[in-house]
């Protein structure tokens, strides 16, 4: 049932090109320069968005914040569900609550949804499992169609959630008139490339395996990124923690000098998301700051960026894509890094200690 793979997690990582085909399938429409999501919601009536989720789904929501603010010019707040429930959020009938969940059963997310609804929000679920509890309580559901995810460490559901959030941001932008047809068509074209680009990213596994071999004895890892790649850094750290039990922290790269830079020493591998985009130069400066203090930089960089080799000890290349879509391609080597490291350490990849696939108790 693992399709010849030693673990479900690896099988699910390799399913990602196909999963993206499924998530995007039939939903991209170049003629209207829009997406068809079949949502029974008037997307023009909202003046703010609250995104609520846990764990990996929360990181997908965090990427969604950048996308919705950029494309739809709506203010977005993102919360982990266990905080949202108890924080007295400011909500009214012009608030759209977007709850993201693979299982659709996470109790904190379900309770946060109920709280948002009680306060008058309209609700949209971004969900994998059909007919799950959350889907029965939202006003509309955007299914991510990732297929069953068995590995406790979420992988394919994450890229599917990201693709869904891209489409939601595009739909909101078109509905609100903040996203012109030409820009929208450009993004649709980039979305269509994703399955192939993720396939290409998977082919870089030998490079990732080499990095894992080199650093699997480290006791700590730091992950850095900026803008949409900040959540990618957090997701990379979460994957590594969950299945290898190595302590890993993530920061938006610009925060480094406000504290975490004190941790840098030659024993600390620092994984930096340094793909091409508007903040590339700033990220490069962060890499130089780490390298100057003896930190070991592993950069995730865009194909063709030879210059980065001058600053980073190891470089994992990923295919070029629109900067707003970069998280979908860049998370692949981070998933593989966690996987390869956990295998080298002899961990139980599919059933990591203390974790359950869906958290249905508070
Ligand atoms: O089923 P959900 O998407 O609601 O689950 C949320 C988190 O529990 C989940 O993403 C968790 O963090 C995973 N173990 C991450 O790999």
UniProtKB/TrEMBL annotation:
Alphabetized GO MF terms: glutamine-fructose-6-phosphate transaminase (isomerizing) activity
KW Cytoplasm (keyword) present: yes
Principal cellular location given in the protein's record: cytoplasm
Presence of the UniProt keyword Transferase in the record: yes
EC number: 2.6.1.16
Active site (catalytic residues): 357 (for fru-6p isomerization activity)
Enzyme kind, highest EC tier: transferase
Known catalytic reactions: D-fructose 6-phosphate + L-glutamine = D-glucosamine 6-phosphate + L-glutamate
Stretches assigned to the SIS domain: 39-178, 211-352
Record's keyword terms, sorted: Aminotransferase, Cytoplasm, Glutamine amidotransferase, Repeat, Transferase
Subcellular localization, as worded in the UniProt entry: Cytoplasm
Complex and partners: Homodimer.
Role noted for this protein: Catalyzes the first step in hexosamine metabolism, converting fructose-6P into glucosamine-6P using glutamine as a nitrogen source.
UniProt name for this protein: Glutamine--fructose-6-phosphate aminotransferase [isomerizing]
Gene it is expressed from: glmS
Parent-record interval covered: 243 to 604 of 604
């Amino acid at each position: 049932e693992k399709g010849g793979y030693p673990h479900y997690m690896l099988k699910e990582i390799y399913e990602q090109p196909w999963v993206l085909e499924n998530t995007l399938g039939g939903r991209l429409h170049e003629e209207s320069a829009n997406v068809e999501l079949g949502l029974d919601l008037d997307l023009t009536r909202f003046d703010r968005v609250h995104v609520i989720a846990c764990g990996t789904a929360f990181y997908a929501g965090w990427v969604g914040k950048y996308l919705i603010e950029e494309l739809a010019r709506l203010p977005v707040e993102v919360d982990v569900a266990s905080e949202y429930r108890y924080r007295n959020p400011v909500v009214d009938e012009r608030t759209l609550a977007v709850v993201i969940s693979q299982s659709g059963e996470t109790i904190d997310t379900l309770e946060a949804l109920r709280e948002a609804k009680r306060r008058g929000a309209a609700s949209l679920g971004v969900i994998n499992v059909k007919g799950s509890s959350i889907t029965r309580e939202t006003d509309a559901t955007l299914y991510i169609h990732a297929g069953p995810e068995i590995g406790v460490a979420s992988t394919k559901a994450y890229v599917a959630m990201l693709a869904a959030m891209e489409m939601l941001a595009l739909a909101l932008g078109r509905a609100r008139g903040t996203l012109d047809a030409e820009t929208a068509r450009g993004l649709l074209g980039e979305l269509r490339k994703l399955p192939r680009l993720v396939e290409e990213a998977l082919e870089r596994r030998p490079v990732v395996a080499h990095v894992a071999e080199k650093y699997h004895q480290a006791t700590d890892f730091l992950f850095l990124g900026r803008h949409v790649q900040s959540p990618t850094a957090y997701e990379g750290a979460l994957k590594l923690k969950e299945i290898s039990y190595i302590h890993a922290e993530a920061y938006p790269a610009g925060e480094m000098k406000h504290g975490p830079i004190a941790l840098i020493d030659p024993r600390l591998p620092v994984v930096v998301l340094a793909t091409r985009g508007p903040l590339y130069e700033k990220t490069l400066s962060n890499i130089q700051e780490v390298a100057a203090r003896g930190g070991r930089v592993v950069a995730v960089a865009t194909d063709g960026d030879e210059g980065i080799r001058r600053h980073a000890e190891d470089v994992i290349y990923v295919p070029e894509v629109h900067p707003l879509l970069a998280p979908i391609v860049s998370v692949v080597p981070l998933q593989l890094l966690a996987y390869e490291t956990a295998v080298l350490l002899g961990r139980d990849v599919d059933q990591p200690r203390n974790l359950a696939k869906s958290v249905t108790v508070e």
